[in-house]
Amino acid sequence: MKKWLLGKKWRVILAGILVTATPLISLALFVNFTGNAALEERVINENRNYSLLAAHTLEMNVKSLIYAGKAFATRPLLLRDLKRRAYKDTQIHLKNLIDNIPSIQRTFITTPQGVQISNYPFTADTIGKDFSARDWYTGVSKNWEPYVSEFYLRAAKPQKYLFAIALPIKVEEQVIGILVMQPTEDFIKESVSNIDIGNGHLYVVDKKGSLIYHNDLSIDRIIDYSNVPVVRKVMNGMGGVERIIDPLDNVPAISSYHPMDEWGWGVVVDRHVDVVLAPVRKVTVWLIIVTGSMILLGAVFAYKGSRLLISERKLAEELQREVAERKLAEKAVQEALDESKRRHAEMAALLAATRAVLEYQEFKDAARSIFDSCRNLIGATSGYIALLSEDGVENEVLFLDAGGLSCTVDPTLPMPIRGLRGTAYQTGKPAYENGFSRSEWIHYMPAGHVTLDNVLFAPLLIKGKAVGLLGIANKPGGFTDNDARSASAFAELVSVALYNAWTFEALEKSEERFRSVTQSANDAIVSVDDAGNIISWNKGAHAIFGYTEEESLGKPAAILIPDQYRDAHLRGMERFLATGETKMIGNTIESRGVRKDGGEFPLELSLSTWKTKEGIFFAAVIRDITNRKKLEQDLMKGSAELEASNSKLQEANSALQAMNEEQQAMNEELLSQQHEITEANQSLEDVSRTKSDFLANMSHELRTPLNAVIGFSEILQDEMFGKLNEKQQEYVKNILGSGKHLLDLINDILDLSKVEAGKIDLDLCKVSIKATLNASLMMLKEKAIKHGINLDCELSSDADIEIEADERRLKQILFNLLSNAVKFTPDNGSVHVHARKVQSLEGVNSELRTMNSELDRDFIEISVADTGIGIAPADIPKLFNEFTQLESAYTKQHEGTGLGLALTRRLVELHNGRIWVESEQGKGSRFTFTLPVKQAPRPILLAGEDRQTEKKPAYGKRALIIDDDPRILGLMKEALMIDGYSVFTAAEGKAGVMTAKQETPDFIVIDLIMPGMSGFEAVDALRSDAKTESIPIIILTGIDLSAEDRKKLDGRVQYVLEKGSIRKEKFAAMVRKAVGG
């Protein structure tokens, strides 16, 4: 064969070319495909890591805001201000939140119903606005957990995608508000800006597939990426890597995508194939060049071999060299893969440590988590974290982990700064020693310490100063420079956690110290913004000016300045804001102030100012110098008197002049008093009008719900919807009784006003003395038993009769007297009630005596005697006065309005009776009153009660109820439907009038107090229309109608019924009478 090859020159050349080219081409193809595959795998892993890192970083940043919001929402000072509704103070908290978290551009607080109560930066237009329709409110109110809203495109230029984070503010599991944080418009960009992907694209989509961030695009419009295959996958919660056509550049790319399941977002990283595989192509070109060169070189060698007979040994050595180069190439690829895995592990550990900084509020917990991540990544078995002592001479161990080895050294013992630890502290850089057991520092180790083969210390640096150490030890194989760099990175995270803890603690102490100093000062300390409005107010200001903190915050500071100085104050403030020039800042001056009651007083004022990015603010320290001025005036007065005594002639002249001036002053004083009396009369009229309005509104707002409670209780008691068991009947009976009693008590509060106005009327009926006494005693029996008080009643046989009286008012008289007797009788005492029939005219007016001669004979006398504290003789004359409570150590223990006995006397006198008291201090009291058995007739007609109504047939009965209270609507609807009526309802006047015109009911019930169209306006509208002018109307009201109001309704309605007196029987009778049977 050898001879055959050497037979022809071209055979030798061809053989040489083939021998040379075949392994070179094979090697080139192997290196090309292997390198291409390895590099592509590395790119895939890098892309996956980039998308994973971006998703985790963005997720951690959002969660860090949530954690910060949670911590903020639990601040005691914030919760205190929200509970006492100090909404102005909450703006300070919101400002601190934004100052400490730059990634938040705006934040505000709403009520649990979504109504905004505070915001920062402050915007007055949104205060009080209802945000319950927003996505963030729907999300957070679903289960009262933190919620990240959907993205929305801001309307303002430049347009950016924004989102909001909403968190509930809770106190003992009760939601008292909602904290809403709006991150900055570049929040996503700043979160992923540190991720360098080279020439690729990194973008983020929301759960709808819309583009919300792109590193190469400005998102100023909605860009739909939902048709991109990888976006569809990430929207379905899938993650992965695949080849795609880049949607932006329309070129092949390697795309990795990772979902953020918690909010439905997704992160996608695209890198162009021609860019990431460029190194492989470059290697391929060089391989082709080298291979071609080698082939040419082989041809030359073969040509020369045909002449020189190149030996087989040389060819074998060339082949071995090519194989060795291939192995080197394979080793380089493997090393690159190992480095990529190591960096991925390091990034995961750093991410976990970063999460610990954000998640843990306690520094020790965060430091422990970071230490574990560092130790696990580097591979050490033991270590500790220690902080530098205050004197800077030793370490104080935060915690120590022996890695399962025996360690008997007390961790609380001093750890001096020396050896390798001292090197780390002095240089501020990590230091390690792999031969520690053989080093000079081994002699510093105390007995019982863990054996250390190698150690690494990384200093904790804050503002360039070492404040502690992160130490790890006993890594198999020893530490490297990479380990030192990694430990330094973890130490930096520990330093961040420590600095955050220090900052938070200092901030809380500073706020509390400032508030304590301000509130404890005797002088007034007031802060004002550049708009002239008060933003802070201490207790000293309250004491001096009379305004409470709630009354003053947000009000102009000019309310503290007398009228004659206000213009000068405003001009001076405008000049300072414009030019910065003023003579008052930094100086103490004397001026005058005005109190809440209008009184002026001299004051001493010290004024300072400070400036922030929100504007210029002023702080004033104000001292009341009234007493000092009075002393100065007294000194001046004494000096004047001394000077006057030196000249008798001058004194006489001065006296004469003083008499003239005194006469003039008296004339002026009389005019002033006349003016004050006129103003006082006007004020009394205003007070009376305000009181009447208040009582009317209270009557409506309290009687309405109580009437519903009573009505529904009566329905339940009548078993209209099924049988009740014994326990249910007992509960319903108690509810009904308590509701009626509470309604009676509310009516009592209004009675005194009615009595004073002469508007109270008695509802006279036959009343059993025995039943009334028993009912009254039962109401106080439980309280008497509780205090061991013997409560009994003695009824004479001639008193067991029925008298003509107002039953509710009689019970009210007895309850007032009995409750006072029980209240002021010590434990184990007694209260005795006695009733008898007497014949007396004492205390009965002459008019009643003339009207009914039977009153001359028959009266009922009822007395309530107790063994209580008694009443001093000097106090008895004022006992029945309004708002009077007798002063004693015992009465201080019991609250009261002082109206009970005054109202009792008025009610007895309305019955033409008389009441008096007999008492001996320290032994007890006896209250006695008399009532006539029969009363003179007092006919009282409601407007329209005596009028004939048009009769209508009873078939097809239809009723319309117009009332804004759903409970009253439900009660009347149930009662009328049971009676066979078809019932229409309307919650306001306009809708009710429209329904009446469409349905023409048999009668209409109208509430007078409703939103929009009132009951008066509804009556006007119904009576002015031909379809409804003859329909009977029953007026339902919870207020006391004035004579003018009754005149408006006279002749236009059939009945006027008070909500406090609604009963089913009475209402049914009115209905039957109104519709003609």
Overview of the structural elements:
This protein is of the alpha+beta class and 1077 residues long. Helices cover 48% and strands 20% of the residues. The longest helix is centred in the middle third of the chain and has 70 residues, at 648-717. It is built from 28 helices and 35 strands.
Summarize the structure.
The chain has 1077 residues and is α+β, with helices and mostly antiparallel strands.
Count of DSSP E strands? 35
Going across the major beta sheet, what is the strand order?
A: 15-14-13-18-17-16
Distance between the termini: 138 Å
| Beta-strand percentage range | 15-25%
The number of helical elements comes to 28
Average predicted confidence as pLDDT: 80
Largest sheet at a glance? 6 strands, antiparallel
Shape by Cα distribution:
elongated
| Helix content, binned percent | 40-55%
Secondary-structure content class: alpha+beta
Instruction: Give start-end ranges of low-pLDDT stretches.
Output: 841-856, 939-955
Radius of gyration: 47 Å
What key phrases describe this protein's structure?
1077 residues, alpha+beta, six-stranded antiparallel β-sheet, five-stranded antiparallel β-sheet, 28 helices, 35 strands
Topology:
Blueprint: H1 2-7, H2 9-73, H3 76-83, H4 87-100, E1 104-110, E2 116-120, H5 135-143, E3 147-148, E4 152-153, E5 161-162, E6 165-171, E7 174-183, H6 187-192, E8 201-205, E9 211-214, H7 229-235, E10 240-245, E11 252-260, E12 265-272, H8 273-276, H9 278-308, H10 312-359, H11 363-378, E13 382-388, E14 394-401, E15 415-416, H12 419-427, E16 431-433, E17 455-462, E18 465-473, H13 481-520, E19 524-529, E20 534-537, H14 539-545, H15 549-552, H16 563-579, E21 588-594, E22 600-612, E23 615-624, H17 626-645, H18 648-717, H19 726-757, E24 764-768, H20 769-786, E25 790-795, E26 802-806, H21 807-823, E27 830-838, H22 846-851, E28 859-866, H23 900-910, E29 914-920, E30 924-932, E31 958-962, H24 966-978, E32 982-986, H25 989-999, E33 1003-1007, H26 1015-1023, E34 1033-1037, H27 1043-1049, E35 1055-1058, H28 1064-1074
Parallel strand pairs: 25-27, 31-32, 31-33, 33-34, 34-35
Antiparallel strand pairs: 1-2, 1-7, 3-6, 4-5, 6-7, 8-9, 8-12, 10-11, 11-12, 13-14, 13-18, 14-15, 16-17, 17-18, 19-20, 19-23, 21-22, 22-23, 24-26, 27-28, 28-30, 29-30
